[in-house]
Amino acid sequence: MQRALLLRSLRLPAKPTAILKPLNALTTPPLLPIHPPTTRSASHATPQSIPSPPTASDPPSITYSQHPQGSANDKIEEITELYATAQDEFEIAMEETEKMSVYAEEDRKAAREELGKVQEAYRKAVEGEDGGVAEEVRRRVGQRIRELEQGVAGMEEMAMNQD
Fold first, then answer.
1. CA torsion sign, 56 to 60 to 66 to 67?
2. Interatomic CA distance for residues 155 and 145, integer angstroms
3. Confidence class for position 162, pLDDT limits 50, 70, 90
4. pTM of the prediction?
5. Which stretches of 11-163 are DSSP H helices?
6. Which residues contact 117 (CB under 8 A, 6 or more apart)?
């Protein structure tokens, strides 16, 4: 009964399967007319200006990793991902060490392992053939890695003083 009264007051059809139109123009945006795609400048990509994915018959194109700056960015991205994991492990290990929990030793071991992975990737990047890439890697991530090394060393010292 209440539904019927509500439907009558809204002047909607009684059948719920009927397609309902918006109650007012503010609830839904108006439908825009469909226009054929046009070409625009590169900053406004349209379906016509988006390149199709390469196929096996396409010649290889130059990628960023072939450029020294791209190579540095790739290495820095890899080191940054490893650093994020190591930082997370360090934070967990530090928390468990401060609480003197039974998990602290295993968490410190995991933090040392992740730090070792970061150090290895950093060492490979810095000792690589390209001096420009090595300098860029040193400049952009070296300080963070040194801070993490110092943090892990401080955590180990804290653990030894607790015993």
1. negative
2. 15
3. confident
4. 0.57
5. 68-99, 104-126, 131-162
6. 82, 85, 86
Q: What are the C-alpha distances in Å from 30 to residues 25, 26, 33, 34, 152?
A: 7, 9, 9, 12, 59
pLDDT in tens, 68-123: 556 889 999 999 999 999 999 999 999 999 999 999 999 999 999 999 999 999 99
Q: Are 83 and 118 in contact (CB under 8 A)?
A: yes
User: Residue 163 is encoded by which pair of tokens?
Assistant: 């015993």
Question: How far from 1 is each of 10, 12, 23, CA to CA, in Å?
Answer: 14, 15, 22
Number of H helices, E strands in the chain: 4, 0
Looking at residue 127, the DSSP 8-state letter turns out to be: T
First to last CA, the chain: 76
What is the C-alpha to C-alpha distance for residues 111 and 36, in angstroms, rounded to an integer?
Answer: 57
Q: What is the largest CA-CA distance in the chain?
A: 82
Structure tokens at 20: 């309902």
